[in-house]
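note to self — DONT lose this again. spent like an hour looking for the file last time. sequence + predicted structure for the chain T wanted, 74 res
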Amino acid sequence: MLKGATTIIVGAGAGMGKDSGLPDFRGNEGFWNNYPPYRNKFDFYDCANPNFLYNHPDLFWGFYGSRLNMYREK
């Protein structure tokens, strides 16, 4: 079935990212230590809220863009 598939989706938990050297996704001690502009201003729950996109679009895209770049580099 894999040979004939056009798309494969992998669902994985946080452990795969941590094992590859990426910072923890939700922990304030993980990503926040790797992205100082957010330290002491926002926490994960602020940034992961859809209202954050509407209220702080530049910071929202910075938060997710920075993480995306980290993943791409790995």
